[in-house]
Design a protein that fits this description.
Immunoglobulin-like, globular, about 475 residues, single chain, five-stranded antiparallel β-sheet, mainly beta
């Protein structure tokens, strides 16, 4: 792990912008308040209880905000095996954790195969409106990367209730690696390790992001969470019977000892039972869940569980937000259809580059739907639009031979590539000989969007000595 030092530097021809987003954790909430933050479309909950939400004056669970640019989830609740406040980072401790003296959980112990400690549990009954439930989450841990083959803190999402087609879910874990029956865990998702650093192995590593700032391998994201690695955004889901009562238990605990913390971030409003689902799918190269001016777009994908024999229309009640439809992006119609026999369609939203530095903007799509359980419900989906930071190293320049000159590509880019292959922020041209040079640079920003700029540098020869005669 690495605490990033402050850097003071003289700017020449700079292009800069402000980084947004810092994970912030607040604590002191009841189990009811935490559970209610998770609830989205098509779900009603009751009988909420919490165990181990607080121990020895330390809160193991809380609400978090500002995580969009770092963990891919803007806000929600965080459950940990130690201190929820440690989760917010920055990642500046080699071994962050807090033992709070709480017992483990029997079901987690059975799943882990070893003893557990400091269990944090949130559980409740729920009634789904439709035939599927799901929610989104990110798991992170301080036990990455050193202990991928030994100490494995454990978490699970246990569901109980009637299965469609007969039988029952009986504390069935739905926190699984996509397309498998393997639980999401440090043992099942890792890079291996070389000392304290990520190694060269790949065990389902496409689902993992390293946050190890002082290591050579796999260091890919920011520092506003403490954990040495965390997963990409994953989805837990189960097929259910509409209008029936189910039980969900969300649980996390330390395994073997209580030294290092792990945590799971659950997205606000994502615990849902959708009929018609609406999901934003972003094309941003770095995987961030926002569309960047001049670089990427977002498809608002509307899906239904099964194909219809007739055309199905969805009409939005309204489109609002801080962005202006038709100004900050292409104009978006207030309706979309799904053709007969199809399962989905999409609206493409492309942000317009306006050269103005602004905070991340939103478009909020409001819509209503009907269910046999609850009648008409009202929902919304948010799309995020971010500024682009194109490179600008200035205009064509003429200088005298031997004039010192430095070009500055600006801060807040991840990568730099000058015409001579150098990869530093600054470029010092050779002005010792007269002639014309082409100066060009390509930069990659925090979203992995690229931009380039080119100029011509004319180095003029020094004037020759002029003999002056005096009478």
């Amino acid at each position: 792990m690495k605490l990033r030092p402050a850097i003071f530097i003289l700017l020449f021809l700079s292009a800069s912008f402000s980084l947004t987003g810092q994970v912030t954790v607040n604590v002191g909430f009841t189990a009811q308040q935490l559970a209610q933050m998770l609830v989205g479309q098509g779900i009603s909950i009751s009988n909420v209880t919490g165990t181990g939400l607080q121990g020895s004056g330390t809160y193991l669970a809380g609400k978090f905000y500002g995580g969009l640019n770092d963990i891919g989830i803007d806000s929600g609740i965080v459950m940990t095996s130690g201190s929820a406040l440690i989760a917010q980072g920055p990642n500046n401790q080699g071994s962050a954790g807090m033992g709070v003296g709480l017992p483990g959980d029997p079901q987690l112990t059975a799943l882990a195969g070893v003893g557990t400690n400091d269990a944090c549990v949130l559980e409740f009954d729920f009634i789904p409106q439709y035939d599927t439930i799901r929610f989104q989450y990110v798991f992170g841990s301080e036990e990455y990367h050193s202990f991928v083959a030994s100490y494995n803190d454990i978490f699970a999402f246990f569901i109980s209730g009637p299965r469609p087609g007969g039988g029952n879910y009986n504390n069935t874990n739905i926190a699984l690696i996509p397309g498998t029956d393997l639980p999401v865990s440090i043992y099942n998702i890792n890079f291996g390790h070389i000392g304290d650093c990520p190694g060269t192995a790949c065990i389902n590593c496409e689902y993992l992001i390293s946050n190890c700032g002082n290591c050579q391998n796999g260091c890919a994201s920011g520092v506003s969470v403490e954990y040495d690695a965390y997963t990409v955004v994953l989805t837990a889901w189960a097929v259910v019977i509409p209008c029936q009562t189910y039980h969900l238990k969300l649980a996390i605990a330390d395994a073997v000892d209580a030294s290092l913390d792990s945590g799971v971030f659950l997205e606000a409003g994502s615990f849902s039972s959708p009929g018609v689902t609406i999901n934003p799918v972003y094309s941003t190269p770095g995987g961030e869940r926002l569309a960047v001016e001049g670089c990427s777009y977002v498809d608002l994908v509307v899906s239904i569980p099964f194909p219809m024999s007739d055309t199905m229309w969805l009409v939005f009640d309204s489109i609002r937000g801080t962005a202006t439809n038709g100004v900050d992006c292409n104009f978006i119609n207030d309706s979309i259809f799904i053709a007969p026999g199809q399962l989905s369609n999409y609206l493409r939203i492309t942000p317009v580059y306006d050269g103005t530095v602004e905070p991340t903007e939103t478009l909020i799509f409001y819509y209503s739907s009907s269910s046999a359980c609850t009648g008409t419900t009202f929902s919304s989906i948010v799309v995020y639009l971010a500024d682009w930071n194109p490179i600008d190293i200035g205009s064509d320049t003429t200088v005298c031979q031997g004039t010192p000159l430095v070009y500055d590509a600006g801060e807040n880019y991840r990568f730099y590539q000058w015409q001579d292959g150098s990869t530093n922020r600054y470029f010092i041209p050779n002005t010792s000989a007269p002639g014309t040079q082409t100066i060009s640079v390509t930069v990659t920003d925090i979203y992995l969007c690229t931009s380039s700029d080119t100029l011509q540098l004319l180095v003029a020869p020094l004037p020759g000595a002029k003999l002056i005669r005096h009478n």
